[in-house]
Structure formats: structure tokens, C-alpha cells
Amino acid sequence: MLRVVVSALIMFSASRGLATAFLSARRLGHVVFKAQCRRPKLAHKTQSVQLSRFARKDPDDPGPFDEESLKFDFGWSPENEGLDESVGESDEFEDDMGRRIREAKNLEMGIDDEDDREWEPKPARNYALTIPEGTCAGCGIILQSARLGEPGYLPAEKLEPSTPQGEDEDASESPSLICQRCHRLRNYGVQSLKDPELRPGLSHFEELKPEAFEDLLAVVSKKRCVVVTLIDIFDFHGSLLPGLKQIVGGNPLLVAVNKVDLLPGDMSVDRVKHWVLGECRDFAALDRVRLGDVHLVSARTGLGVGGLLDKARALAKQRGCDIYVVGAANVGKSSLLNRLADLDGGQAAGTKRSKKGKVQGKAPKKRGITTSSLPGTTLSFLRMEVGENVALVDTPGLILPHQLTAALNPEELRAVIPNKKVEPTTLRLAEGKVALLGGLASVELAEGRPFFFTFFHAPDVTLHATKAEGLEDFLRAHTGSLLKPPFEAARLEAIGELVEHLIPVDGAGWKEASCDIVLSGLGWFSITGAGPCTVRVRAPRGTMVVQRDPLMPFEAKATMGKATGGRIVKKPRKKKTGDRR
Terminal CA-to-CA distance of the chain, rounded, Å? Predict the structure, then answer.
């Protein structure tokens, strides 16, 4: 009897051990399956260490981790892979999580895997500005010390070779000279440039007249080069050069659309590219432009800049020529070049200044081309070597009189030019109601059933809804307080009277906008509704007001706002990426 009991206990123990081993093997196999299914793009290193981590954490594992078994079963060991066994779990998790988050964002924005390389910001390379002797490293103008207050002025002692060069005391590592105008813009901002004689478009100096910039760009068509035209997505038609076809001539053209990082995050990149292509062909007759020539970029963050440069440089290398960047004033050409070379041409981001204007906090490492909100900051050609015997040439931005920004002072310019993500706002307007964009423009439903109006503008521009009756008195009473910009009611007269534009609109239904109406230099609004209507727009004389196909037609539902007293309250935005295509 005792022998039978002992035999039974031995058999029971053996069967339990086999069951435990079976469960352990089953769990390990499950881990292998999950690792292969969930992480198909991970490197062999990550998969292998992941397996070893799960093997050690198996609660039913009867013994310590057996590295030899993994060598036999999976053909892996730290020695033959050259790996460090101490790779931490948090490092692997963070790396994989970063990849998955990036892929999710790309999917949400409509970026395909093959476009991911072009869209991602690329690290700045060691590109260098080539500054001819005797010229300003910030704007490209010829330096002079004889005429104070004129373009290119620099005190004589600064031009002496023995004088330490650089624009300020703590920037001695930069050997380049800049003019007094660039020095003020960099260190004290556009508000320090009070003399209108140093502002292109307002000055009587020949170097600062719009005609001088046009003459400079006229040589581009005669050169063998690759042309990149930079366009501001928030003023697409206003910043698209009217004579671009003549400027380009027979040279290849790439279209770069800047500031796309400021659009709503759920935009469809593919749809925006097709929209840009259509507007280039219809509005500017650029029939040679193809979809592959359109690049969405951000000079501020570097999005898409790497892919644009790769395409332009490949074309330039093939043709044995340089790349010329052209565009209207304030579209970001100089910022684009500074981004490529990891330079800073304006005030250091994140720094504060004392009352005397001195920098407090961390200053930029290097200085590049001077940038500011002032139209026409760059005054001549500036050349940057970008490798493979190819140079990128920054050109002066053309002053376009149909842009509202041409009539604004520096404070107003900073308010109307968006520098952070724009959140559109939708208002329901009926007859007798009007929406005001600061004191600069008004939008009214002159005739028809109520429609939705979705406004895209800089966050510092006040959007206000009120009655159309007594509008002029309301503007005079509240400009500078309730309505900004302008920041003073006296500026209304200087900017000019508001001119009326009547625009007929045929609604396409309540699911998508039928059209956009652009106020050049201020933004645009889309119109959503059913049936015909007439829209009355008032804008300063000379400002371009144009009707176009909608850029973002599906925003009305998700961005509804309600006027309550002196402000507009918006509902929380509901993300429905399926509607935004």
C-alpha cells in the first residue's frame, strides 16, 4: 500500500511539473507572438531584449532566466549582437512609444508613411552664409559710415578692421558686421525703427523703394537656376507674386507654402496640397507646376524643410546652378534660411528684455539673416552654401500694395501676423448682423437666409459680432478698446476708409463651405449654408478682397461660437477627422 501511495505522489508531481512547464512555454510563445504582431518595425535588438524581459518576469518560471535556452531557441545572445544587456525597459518603451505617437499624428494629419521622411523636421546642417566684404550680414545692403540715418549706416569706428566685430557685446563669436538698422531690429524690435524713411514702401531712398526690389528680381529669369517661391498659407493669394511667371522664366519652379504648422492640427495634408496646386494653376496660370512640386513647410519649426531642400538641391545639382528663393515681403524667406543653418536673425525665443532693452536670459548661439515683422527687412541678395557646390540665395521680398500689412504700423503688424496655431471661430450671421475683425474690416450678411461664417485670423485680432446699424459710430467709439487692432482710434483715419465689396455666394449645403473670402494680410473666412446670399465686406481701400474655393471646408460644425456681450464663447472642439478630408 505504501508503495502505491509513493508511486501516485511521484506521478502527480511529474504531471504538475509538466503542466507548469507547458504553461510557461505557452506564455513565452504568446509573448513572442505579441512582440512580432504589435511591433513589426522594431529592431532585432528591441525584440530580443523584450523577450528576455518577459522570460524573467514569468511568475510560473521555476528557475532563473536561462540565457543558453534563448541562444538555442532564438539564435540570440548579447555577444553575437554586440548589445548591452543592461538596456533599460523605460528606454525601449519610450523609443517605441515615440514612434507610435508620431505614426498616430501622421495618420491623423493625413501623412502617408512614404511622406514621413519629407515632412519631419531635419537637424540643421553646418551651412554657412557667404557675406561679401563691406556688406551687411543681416540684410545684404552695402555698408557706409558717411550718411547717418540712411540705409547701410554703420559708425566709422565699427568699420575699422581692428574693431571687434559683431552686433553686440556678448556676440563676439560672430565675425560679421551688420548695419545700424539691423542692429535695432535684432536688439530692440520693430518698434525701435520709428523713422519711416528706413521702411521699404514708405521711404524716399532709392534702395528702399518697391521698384528697386523688382529690378533686383528681374535678373532671376535671365539666370540658369532653380526657383523656390515661398507663399504664406494665411495670405495665399495676397502673397502669391502677380508676376511670378515672368520672374521664373524657363527655370524649374518649386512652390513652398509656409506656416502650415499654424493650421488646425486635423487638416488633411493631401487635400491642402491639391488645393494649392489648383490655386496656382487657376489664379497664377502656373501650368507647369505639378503636385510633386508643392511642399508644405514651416520655417519656424522645420516641418517639410528637409524634403524641400533635398528636391531643390537635386534639381540644382542636375542643372549645375544655384537656388533662388523669391516671394512677397513677410512670407518667411529669411526665416527659412536661418532654419536651415540653425541661426537666429531676430530676438532670441524665450528671452526677456529689461526696460533698457538688454537681453535677460539665454541669447542665441549664432546670428543669421535679420528677420522681423517689418515688410522688406532683407534689402539685397544673401547667399548660403548648402553643399554639393550649390548655394541658396535669399532675395528681397516684394512690397505688394494690395496687402493690408502695407498700411499698418509695427504694433499692428505683430497683431495681424499669426505666430501660433490658429483656432477658427464660426458665427451664425443673419441679415442686420455684422462681424468685426478688430477695427480693420467688417463682414455682413447683406441678403439671404442665415449662414455660418468661419473666421481664420491671428489670435490677437479681436472678433466681435454686433448690429450693422450704426456701424461707423461703433467703430469710432470702441477701436483701441473692444476692437483691436488698431490700438488707437486715431489710426483709423491713417489706415484709410473702409471700402464696400458686395459678393454673391451660392451655398453648397450645411456639411461643407461653398467658398472662402480672403482679406489680404488679415486672414479669410469661409461660408457654409444652403441657398443664395450676398455678403458685404468692408476693408481699407486698396486691400485685396477675393473669393476662392474653400481651403478648410469642414470647420463650421466643430468651431461654433456664440456672441455673449463683448466676447465670443466657443464650444469645446469635437475631433472628427473623418469629416476633414
Answer: 81
SS3 annotation, 380-399: CCEEEECCCCCEEEECCCEC
Sign of the alpha-carbon dihedral angle for 570, 575, 579, 581? positive
CA atoms within 13 A on the CB side of 121: 14
Residue type, 202: L
The rounded distance, in Å, linking the Cα atoms of 352 and 344 is 16
User: Please, which residues have CB within 8 angstroms of residue 512's CB and are 6 or more apart in sequence?
Assistant: 528, 550, 553, 554
Cα separation, 414 vs 409, whole angstroms: 9
What is the rounded distance in angstroms from the CA atom of residue 490 to the CA atom of residue 480?
9
Going from the C-alpha of 225 to that of each of 100, 140, 308, 388, 429, the distances in angstroms are 40, 20, 15, 15, 50
* Mean pLDDT, the chain, integer: 77
Stated as kind and residue range, the H or E segment containing 101 is helix 89-109
Listing DSSP states for 476-502 in one string gives HHHBTTTB-SSSSTTHHHHH-PEEEEE
**Residue closest to 404 by CA, chosen among 502, 495, 319:** 495
Which amino acid belongs to residue 27?
Answer: R
Adjacency order of strands within the sheet including 225-232: 128-130, 382-385, 391-394, 322-327, 225-232, 253-258, 294-296
Q: For residue 212, what are the CA distances in angstroms to 89, 205, 226? A: 62, 10, 22
The single-letter DSSP state of residue 571 is P
Q: For cell 534660411, what's the residue? A: 337
Strand partners, 463: 437
pLDDT at residue 409, as a whole number: 87
Residues 6+ apart with CB under 8 A from 425: 454, 455, 463, 559, 561, 568, 570
Which residues share a beta bridge with 508? 530
Give residue-wise pLDDT tens across range 208-256.
Answer: 888 998 999 999 999 999 999 999 999 999 999 999 999 999 999 999 9
Which amino acid is present at 348?
A: A
pTM comes to: 0.73
Inter-residue contact 518 to 237 (CB < 8 Å): yes
Please tell me the total number of residues recorded for the chain in this structure. Answer: 581
pLDDT in tens, 342-399: 765 554 333 343 444 443 334 444 578 888 888 888 999 999 998 888 999 999 999 8
**Rounded to an integer, what distance in angstroms lies between the CA atom of residue 500 and that of residue 538?**
4
Region of 438 please: left (phi>0), alpha (psi -120 to 50) or beta.
Answer: left
Predicted confidence at residue 65, as pLDDT, reads 36
